[in-house]
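B., you asked whether I could sanity-check this one before it goes into the benchmark set. Here's the sequence:
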Amino acid sequence: MDDLPKTLVCILSERQDCGVKAELTKSVSLELGKPLLILLSSLRSQTCSSPNDAEDADHSMVSGYLRTGESAATTWSSFQQTFLSIFKSLPLSANLMSALSGVLDAAVTYTSNIMAMLIQVPMDYVKIALQLGVRIPSVNERESCEQGDLKQLIMWGMTHNVSWYFTNSFIDILLENLLIPEQTVCTYPGPECQNSSSFERSLPEAAIDNSHDILLRCDRQTFSELNNTLCGEILYGSREQTPTLVLSLCQALSSLNARQIELLWSNTCYVIQALVSPFLGRSSECSPLASLTPPRQARNAPNLQQLVCNYTSWLENQVVDGVLVSLCSDNKQEEFVKHVCNDALLLRKLLSDQMNSWLYGYCANSTADHGYLVDQFCVYQQWIDQPTVSVQPNLLEFCISLDSPRLTKLICEHTGFFMLLFSNPENARFMPICTTVSLPPPFPGPDPLSCQYSEWEDVMQITTDVLAQCIRNEPTDFAEKVCANRTFLNRLLSNQDNAWLEDHCSTALIFPPTMAPQSIRISDWCDYQSWKDRQVDDSVVGLCWQYDQLAFQKKVCCEVTLFEKLLQDPNNKWLNTVCADKETEDIECVPQVCKYSEWTHPVIVDMTELALCAERDPRNFTSKVCSDETVLQNLMTNQDNTWLIKYCANHSNQGEDGEEDSDGTGFDPAEECQYTTWSVALPDAVLLTLCWEHDQFHFVSSICSNHALLFLLEHEPSSMWVSAMCTTYSNHTTISNKTSEELCLAKELLKHFNWTCPVNVTAVCQPGASQDTVMRLIIRCLADSLRSRMGHLLTPSVAAVLEQAVSTSVVVLLAIEEIQNTSRHVIENIRISVLDSVVHFLEGENNFEKKRVLLQCFGTILTNLMQTARDGTSHEYLIIKEYFNIPLASLKSVLSDLHFTTIRLILQYYTRNKHTLKLTDNYLSTLASVLFKSHLAKDGNLFSELAPLLKAASPTDIYSLPSLQNNPNVRETINNNLGHMSADQQRAFGLWYSKILPPSNITAAHQSLIRDTGNVITYLPFQNFQHLSPAQLLDGLDVLQRNSLTSLKQEFVSQSIIGTYKDLTAHDFIRLGSLSCLAEPSDLLAYQGSQAFRVIWDVIMNCTHDGRTLPSHFTSSLLLNSSELKSPASLSSKRLADIAHFLPSLGATFLQGLSPSQLLEALPALKAVSFTPAQASIIVDKLSTIDTLSAPGRLQDLGSMAVGVKTETLLMLTSDRLLSSLPDMAQHSAGLTPPQANAIATKLWGFPEVIDWLDDVEPLLCCTPLLSVLPRARPLMNNISSASTKPWNTQQAKAILKSELNSKSNLHSDFLSLGMLGQGVSCQALKGHIRADTSPAAVREILALLRQQPGPLHTSLKRCVIEELYQFEFFSELLEDLGVEIALAMPVSTIKKFSSNMMDTLRKMIIEDPVPFFTMSKTAQLLLVDRMLQKLGMYTGMYTEEEFRSLDIMATFVSDEIFVQLDRTFFVDNLNFLQTLCYRSSKMDIMARMLLEDAVFGPAMETWNQTTLSQIDRFLFFLPQDQLQKISLGLMTVGRIEKLFMSQRQWERGVVGRHCLDESEKWRFAEKQQFVLQFFLGFLKINPLSPAPMVPTCEILRTTAPFAWTTSSLTSMSPSAFTNCLELIGHDALLASYQRSQLFEKVKQMFGPVSNFSQSIISQMGRLTLEMSPEEIRMLRLTEKSSIAALGGISEWSKKQLIALFTTTLNSTKLNPSQLDSSTLVAIGYMVCGAKVTEISSFNAVEFSKAVLWLGQLKLSCSEEQLSALVGLLTHSLAFGPISSWDMEVFIEIGVLAAGLEDIAMSALVKEQIEGITPMAISMIPPDKFAVVFHQRQISMFSHEQAAAVTEEQIMALSDVQRTALFMVLTPWEDRHVDFRGRSQGLTLSPSSLYLILGLLMALMVQPESTFSAS
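And here's what the prediction gave me:
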């Protein structure tokens, strides 16, 4: 026997070396085979039933034997009867039951052990065979996996220790097959088929491919590797105690090659097939036609699928078997869709069978042509025409899923259609919410757009409906304008459809019509109060429901009397549906029905009302019924209300033990129902009912037989029902006892044996239930009773063998089902077990790779097993939830392999649970990307379910969407979600949609194109958008307005509509809104005097209020030229408040004409307007004449005009006045001048109470001198909780922390408590904190604190952090925690070592916070971006949109070679985005060349139009001068030039513009701007057609810039205009010296000699004063700090001018140098260098030290002696003390004054002091002094910024060693060839070529050659 497996394997594999024993075995087998087969066939033939039973024959061998003729059937029936009788008559004594239980347990144990021993080897054989034949899917190297079927899933689970709980299911399968139930009425799941015997449904295109391997096919050619089977474990010794027979088989198999294994399988298969086929199939002899039927030919198909799916025959056959339809749809999905779903005739025939109703959903979710299906089946007009034919729910759901918008609209608009559909209650769930649908009015009024006869150009487009509407609504007007106009009438009559019009007009002209009838209000029809007293037509009822739903629900549905009255009309039966619909939950029925207060009395409450209250008002119901014992007792008197017990138990807290019974009530009858005690104390109603519900047997036996107790219960209202129940029960048991036994035999047996069975007994108790059914139930319950004890009876090894045997048997049964195409009821029985087992495995498994196989390779079959119609909270849905736990790296590959049905379930789960899942943005983005790319192309219907993920989709994924633009559902989904998306996503959708909407389609489209398309059309690329016609734009204006239009599109829409239509109404301008501000002024001026102009005025006022700058011609023509503005004093205060935002444009002259009373009354409006300091000063001075500023609340009332308050006035105010004003002034602190800020700060900080005023003084902390903070440092640390939350600057924070350090307090050790003081921590202290806890979490906390500081961190602190953390192993993980500011402080050499992931993280950080990037030197910026390109693989090929957008603000910092490869399509479509970026000189030239390429706008600039210029916008300044001259002069109007300047200025004020250009680039760009203005406005007579030069107004100077105009044009301005713009001109830093000189002469001409200049004129002149001679300066009167500050803020003064200015200041103020306070010194500014050394020495040291915060930021032109004298003031004992005591904070505070330190003092500076010296101070040290005072060791302490500030002259003075030290700071050894100097944003410095050469030579000498090669 041990060699038998080897022998059989050798024979069956047809090997020739098997030996004599094998040959003998083969011979014997062949001789015995034929007799054995004959015997089996003869046995099978005896199982044939009589011909009359042929239709009931089944495929079960056992069943066949049980039905061998009538005698056999009678015998079997008798056996069953006897068995049941014995069972029923068994005495149930405890001893007998115990004995039977013991015998049964012993039998089970013995049988199980024997069976386990017997089946071990056969099951191992079968398992090996299955593992060879079933190829289990796995994830391959491409991370993809083919979908497995259920057999493969079970086999995979058996290999990976999944516990399949198939024992119960296997018993059910055996019972289903051995005891065949009665034939069911249907074979496929449907509404009437709850227990179908058909095949389990599989997913379309899903579980099994058409070409998959059938397991039991004998001609298989592919097999699994032997090592992947049980033999692999046995042969390699990983399995213990292997039976010899199994080992022998594995050894034999291991010696076979592939061909031999194939033969072995084939031969074995044929042998087994021959042996078992008689038992699995029906004998041919059983057929009555067997003798007449010719023998069947062998078929080529591997199974019956290719034979039964003959769709042509389906049309011919009268009836098509539903099982065949199901089979073909599962396994031939593509052909099924083609021949059935796309064939309306066949589909309609199949749907006529109710079993096939599932085809509606199948075809709707398939790839069938949905448009075709809608046309064929959703024939709404036919439904309406045949009202007697009910529309079935399946059909209605089908049409809603495919044609929802049209069907919903029709339902909501057509009352008859509505009533037709919902007269069927089953359709109620599909009722739409009509309140969200734009419905036409029930009684249409006139449509102003349709009856505009003057616009009826194409009369063929005028429909009969339009004509009828106009006649109905405007009969008189129609007769006059149409009928009376014969020419127009003849044109209309040319359309044959309008022939009736001639008769109408003939009558109308003879009998003129009267006015149109008044429109009827809906309230006139829907007078619900009167309906109770009169008959109401059913059409009126439908009308009111359709157009007045909310009132209808309340006044009809909730009024029972009226509701019942209406239901008496059969046509109103549909009301039952709508009034009971779930959508009406929000109506106010509850208060009218749920009258809880009345229920406390013993009243009868209708149980339907009770259920309504429980459903719609659960909270009040629970609190007012379940929690109220009285109410509950009253309600429980009605036996119909017993459901309240379970309801209240489920909605109340559980018991102490928290356990519940199977019903969820937690009720235990054995403990609670103590019937013997009820005679003493009667139970309450709740307990009585609970005992009846849960213990009926004992209840009846204990109560009904106890007459005394029954008497007591009869007299209690809450228990009167017990007596009636006992009477009924007694009668029933007496009269119908025998009948009951017969009808419910199974139930009696269950009670008899006290079995608890999970099977529903109700079906068995129905009349006509067979004994087979009873037997089946008894066996199930018997098995279930044994199941609970099996765990104690079986050993683990036996249980494991049996479990493996059951699982293996299930796989075999599945294979049999597959090969025979018959149902063995396997799937329906194991479905729940499979899902439960998978859920348990997923919950307990930690290895993702195993989970991945389940989710990726078996996702389809798992989805197939799940029930799809559920709420997303079931146990099975835990499988779907597991998809959201997939690691991000594997998400794409897993989801890509899933079937779209699985994807749909995932989306449904996400939609319901997205708020609890808490998924990251990266996860959602990846999820959206996979679904867009992998699944949406296969099934476009997924799009609507993807709606929650649209916001997470990347622009690239959106643009790559499949072509679904014409799908209305897709378009509607996009339109509904666009408002929640980013601008990039919106633009991507527009670009995607433009694929089907080229310019030709737009121009040919209907006028309603925008409305029909929806929101997405707003985001078309401008190249497409510009082809929309004015008519289309006006028609779709509402759509455009509710979306975000770019400025370019806004201008296009405005000018297209307003420029085309000359008769727009006030309503049109209201619709246009702020778009009107972008129109040409001439187009708007045409409406002056009309009603629309008032709207235009209001719109423009709103635009200015929103801060929008309008072209000068706009404001001057429409607003400033108004007659009322000619006389300022005549304006009312209200009118002045209305035009408040225009006052800065009206200028100082207008403000001077206003009276103080006018200004005072309009002050609330004026305080929010941004006035210039001079204008604010005028207003404040006027107000001061009638109301002193020292009055309470007056200062804060000024708002933004506080900048006009004199510093002298602020110093006179008390502290309480200043404190009360500061909170309001905080909003405008940026507008305060430095003297004002200094005056307020120093005054308030002079009070010790300032410690308690921190909240009030917070806005001015940045302006508070360090010397004012130092005395308060110690108290501030005592108030650390408040101080740590304030925005201190670095030097203040350091001073405060230093005071704490000196006090030796232990608070400083808690770094995280420092808050915003953290920026002041020293490097040594910071390192100590980091080293105290080096865990990543602790380090991240410190870094988080540093990122929260209010201002930029000091360079030394950033360098300290980098040096300390760089040595940590997890440094690479801290990049994001460092923040972009610290990250970019790392040397470029360190950044170059970043991995690709780190570089990508850095890229995202820079995009999020770009300011630190812009503060880097230009060279560092270029190197960083270059390295980033290399790391991210973006260095070759076309510069694509994806690459460009990924770099964002860094995209223009790539090399010129890369930038020139920019994708031109992206370039043209995204000019608006490109204009927001930074371009240096070389990039400007490239951009100019691109603009002139043929693929862009072309070199023929003469053909450019206004739209072209609008697109190019500020890029026009990039064009070279020779190209600019080619632009048509007519295009470059004043308005266009103004828009160019305003666009450039808007960019310059943004984050990018503020940091982009250095000073030299700004000058070059200004020259281009100047050329454009002067050339096109005729100042440069290069072109003879140039217009005559114009004289600018003040308004146009504000929109352009004074420097761009010629001097002659500026001096030719009118005196009032020049005066109004003097401040603007005087502060233009780009005015050349020759321009300033002539303008200064103009000022003297207007205002007289210099000595006559007022303080206001001096302040406004600003830089024009640079042209004054020293003599003229001495004639000035500088009496106010505002005029002093205006001159002190100018840096270009000569030495003589400075001396004259300082002397004039002293003379004008009549102060000596020692009397100058800090605010005056701040105002003096650069003029301090005009003081003599002796005068400087006499300054008040304390006041000067308080002013040094401002003075230290100026690049003073003082001599070395002057600087030294200024530093001497700072060393005063009352100031900062001796230099040796200065710490870093003092050096930061004094700024450039550090350059004045004495040589000895400077050479003695230590590292911390050197780190505090500002780069500007470094650059101001004289070269000789620099070389002397700084040792190379000190130079090596420089920061990179300090080293970059060293000038070329200073470098020349250094020694070689000093230069080397400087070189090593500038270029670390990894990157020694890079010089970052000369390009910082702080200074304009020149690079030193000599420095570079010397640096390279020294590097070559210092470093070995290998270092260079390595780097």
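One thing to flag: The CA atoms of residues 212 and 1236 lie 86 Å apart. Otherwise nothing jumped out at me.
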